[in-house]
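Problem: given the chain below (134 residues), write out its structure.
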Amino acid sequence: MYYVLFLMLVSKKTKNSVIIIMVDLNENTNVNIPLRNLLALIFAVAVSVTGYVNLTSRITQLEHSRQITNVEVSMNSEFRVKWPRGELGALPADANQDLRLNYIEKRLEMVDGLSRELEIEVHKAKVESEVIDN
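Solution.
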């Protein structure tokens, strides 16, 4: 098989020069390349592959981190809405505080009731003393 290799050479005078070379390429074709260039080519490929692997690894890590953050944010939003409503339960300290508040409310109602009874008795006493004075 023959392949045509076009080389474009630009000269200062003509500005357009084309050289056509016929090349026979097959499995026995030899390529001469300096060892220094071959090593540089291998090194460049190795650096490129390492960079690609590191980049894809970092992208995967960031995507995973973002997914975890999204889950945490949604759980936090659910907690923020449901906790004040009491849909997620209560802390033991809250339950203890609620019991104390209920006890205080009952005692306050009892004291209010006694206070009203005393006010009524004082009012009756005033009325009786006015009746007696008259």
